[in-house]
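Structure in, sequence out. Go:
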């Protein structure tokens, strides 16, 4: 399991609704953390 997957699982536990927003944003091709 990658570090990213571990962080995602922890975020799902802490803030599942927030993680859904992150995944939705990441789904719009070309998204990278910190990229505006």
């Amino acid at each position: 399991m990658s570090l990213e997957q571990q962080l995602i699982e922890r975020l799902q536990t802490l803030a599942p609704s927030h993680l859904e927003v992150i995944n939705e944003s990441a789904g719009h091709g070309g998204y990278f953390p910190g990229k505006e």
